[in-house]
Each structure stands twice: as C-alpha cells, then as structure tokens.
Amino acid sequence: MNYTKRRKLLFLTFFNIFLLAILIACTGLINRCDINASIDRSNGLDNTAQDVVQTENKQTGTAHDSIEEKPEKDTQDNSQADKEAKHVQSPSAQDTGSKYSFLSYYKPENASRYEEYGLENPGLDEKRVVIDVNIGLDYPFYGLIKEIQNYNDVTVLVNKYNKLPDNYEPELKQLEERYCVPGRGAQHLRKEAAEAFIKMHEDAKKEGLNITAYGTYRSIPTQQRIWENAINSGRTQEDVDSLNSRGGHSEHHTGLAVDVVINDYSVLDTKEYQWYKDRAHEYGFIIRYPEGKENITGYKYEPWHLRYVSPEIAKEVYNSGLTYEEYYVTVIEPNMQK
Ligand SMILES: [Zn+2]
C-alpha cells in the first residue's frame, strides 16, 4: 500500500466514524423528541384530568357557597336575595325550591311542588306560588288531605285540604233561644265563639238590629249525611262541593262557625248584613268565604257564614283583605313552627 492509498483509507475511516457519530447524535435527538412528545401528551392528559377536578371543585364550591350564603339572605332585601340565588346556583347543584326560599313561609318539604307549580303557572310570582302550594292549591280540592293536629285552637284551619279527626267533638255551649232564629232547633257554639256572638248580638240590638244564629255546630256524621243527601238529590258533585262540605271538612264541626239570620243570598238585603260586614271583626268574626275567592276557599261567596278566630286575628284578616287560607299560611302557620 502506497502513501496515497493509506491517506484515502484513513480519510474514509474518519469519514465513517463521523457519519456514525452524526447517526448516533440524530437517533439520540429523535429519542429525546419522542420522550418530550410523550411527556407533553401525558401533561396534556394530566391537564385534562386537572380541568375535570377543577370543574368539580368549582361545582362543589358553588354548592358550598350557596349553602354558606343562605343565612345571609335573611338580612338582605328579597329581590337581591332572589337574584343571588339565581346567579350562584349551577343547574346541577340547584336546590329545586331555593328560588322561593327568601319567603318567611317557605317550606323546604314543598320545594319540588313550588318548582312544578311555578313552571305550570309562569305568570305567577314567587309569593303567589308559595302561598298557593302551602294552601294545597296545586292539587284539586279534596286532592291532598291532611288530618288537622291543632283542632282545639280557635285559629284552626278547616277546609277541603284539612280534615278534622273522625272522633273530634268540641266542648260546646248552648245558645239561649233569643239569640237564635226561631224554628231552627237548639244551637251550640264553643265558649269563646258563643260569648263573642252574644256580645255582637247585644250591641247590634242597641241599634235596632237582630243578628241571630241560623246554623251553628254540626257533627261530622250529620254533615256527611247532608252532603250525601245533596248528591242523591241529583245535583252534580261539583255543585254540591261548592256549597256543602264533606264530613270532617266543615268549620261547623268546630263550634266556631255560625250562619247568621238566614243562609241564602237574601241576607245581603238585610240591615243586619250592612252592619256586621264591617263590624263582625271587632268581635272576632270574619266573613269566611268572601266574594270572588272561590278558587282559594273552595266555596262560593257566603255572606251569612261567620267564623270566630279571636278579635285580634279577625281585625288583621279584615284589614289585609286576604282569605283566611292566605292569612293562615303566611302568618299563623309560620309562627306556629317557630
Ligand atoms: Zn256555614
């Protein structure tokens, strides 16, 4: 081998080593790129998982915030509290009734009923929805019946949703004949109602009026018989229900209700009615079934039917213009639960 050949061989050897070095370097680079890429991908996955966790945390935070904010709402004005309730809640964490929870007479157990009734009646505001549902008006009359617990209270609410226990019998006092419409038999009221009625009768008498008892206490079996006879007379059930209670659902069972003078619409033409319509509350009586409120009370206007609730409450009901159902669920019931 001559000198020139040796130089060529040496050059080729170094060149090959150089190429090998480049090859190794490139392979290393590619591997590094792969590793980085896989790290990036795994980071990407991690980020995605993190997003989910963060989203969950956000949701937990939302639910938590809304729980924490509840007590503060009582100190804020209603519209502001309502706006916050709407804003804070995500649909998934929504307490279905909380839109209504700013109202003092909101009942958590009615939450889903408020929601449903509100959706069915989009024209009603939150107050109306809660009042109606608390009365039971999201169900038809006699569609949801509760047995009354506070049957001895003079404020007791008896209606088509609230039934007295079958064995309920109040303590009664017989009215003297001079306080009663002749020919109607013996009349009985509870002591508080009897005393108030006598006082009202005597005061009206001083003005030449004669407010007498036409109908008072009726037992549950008597009332049921009246209702069944009315049905058997050929009247429709709807018509009978609009004027006659079913057994257990009449205020006349409590001894706190009295039909005065005569129980038909001719009572409107009497001087007695003109006097008691704006005076009865002073003695503790309300006209229990006012005109135009049949959809709430379940009864047509009954200007003759007075109900004793105490002078204090009768004045409030009279001045409020509310039906007793509305007054009861917004004022009496919330105070009972405290
Ligand atoms: Zn009556």
Describe this structure in words.
The protein is an alpha+beta fold and 338 residues long. The chain has a domain at 146-337: Muramoyl-pentapeptide Carboxypeptidase, domain 2. The protein has eleven helices and eight strands. A four-stranded antiparallel beta sheet has the order 5-6-8-7. Strands 1-2 form a two-stranded parallel sheet. A two-stranded antiparallel sheet has the order 3-4. Helix 1 (3-73) runs antiparallel to helix 2 (78-88), helix 3 (111-120) crosses helix 4 and helix 4 packs across helix 11 (324-337). The longest helix has 71 residues, at 3-73. The radius of gyration is 39 Å and the shape is elongated. It starts with a helix and ends with a helix. The relative contact order is 0.08. The structure holds zinc ion (ZN). Zinc ion is lined by residues 215, 252, 257, 259, 305.
CATH class of one domain: Alpha Beta
Radius of gyration: 39 Å
Oligomer: single chain
- Output the CATH topology of one domain: Muramoyl-pentapeptide Carboxypeptidase, domain 2
Distinct ligand kinds: zinc ion
Backbone shape? elongated
Question: Uncertain segments of ≥5 residues (pLDDT<50)?
Answer: 22-94
Q: Strand order, main sheet: write it out.
A: 5-6-8-7
- Average pLDDT reading: 80
Main sheet specs: 4 strands, antiparallel
Helix content: 40-55%
What is the CATH architecture assignment of one domain?
Answer: 2-Layer Sandwich
Cα-to-Cα separation, first versus last residue? 116 Å
Total number of β-strand segments?
8
Helix count equals 11
- Helices and strands, in order, run as HHHHEEEEHEHHEHEHEHH
